Amino acid sequence: LREVELYHLWIWRWPGPGQHVQISKLNGKYFKSSFDIKGSAELRENSEPDLNLNGKFNLDLSDLKNFPQLVEPLKTVNPVGILTAKGNFKGKPKDIHSWASTINISSPRVTLANHPVENIIAKYTQEANTGKGSFILGSSIYGGKLSADATIGVEDPKLPIQLQTKLEKLDLSQLRQLKELQGTDISGFVSMNAQVEGPAKDVNQLTGEGSLVVVEGYLGKLKFMDGILGALLVVPQFQNIFITDASVNFIVRDGRISSEDILLASSSVQLTGHGWVDFKSNMDVEISPKLSQIALAQTDSAKKFPTELLSSAISVKCTGTLNQP
Question: 44 and 18 in contact (C-beta within 8 Å)?
Fold first, then answer.
């Protein structure tokens, strides 16, 4: 551990068959991260020590890349920022089943995949002899509230997880700061609920379900929407529409988010559809339009029937990726 810098290590030790070691101060750095620990250890022959530690950690997320097993998963997430953690730990270092721990985590701001997550308050708890940990999270992202509640099987190498997430009123207009959306008029509020379970180390085996809703929106400048709406220009009434609301009920299975219940709506048209998007942003979605009665009423009588017939006969299949449909 040559990367660890120790500033102070004060230890009191009492001799005997079962030796008690008191750690009154242990602090230092690991690359850009720092720690400050105190506590005790019970040393026994032919057995792991029993630790009882309390401490504070400032974790610079860029240091996670120094763990070989995390290099690949972190490539897409690219975490940046500092997390402050305060908590305690009891148990034998190599006996996960014996661990008992409570850790409170906070940060004013970190970025994940270039998206800012702010006002982070989280807590991890693990009771001794259960082999399970629980995690709760509260935070904000683009003006919306993001919360999560998870249970993790820490003894299983695959880390089986049961996760519930909730997103309330994410403000799409704040996404205009992203390079790919600069100069657009995207707006609206997104809310979502989802429940998934499965091995955390293999997202392709996760299963679950959820729903997503967009209200008060303007979505016409998204590349995905441009691909769909551009294919509908054969119907004159579709030439000036923009999507204001959307809803999707979905399931998670086989590395895909799939839906048979997609609805995109404006004042003059509804687009219904089905399809899937996988965790690599590949997509296969089919959308069918339907003009509203108001839009049909405003169509010239001579064109009303062919317009209605043409709009009901069109089906748009969109493949590729979300960024390049």
Answer: yes
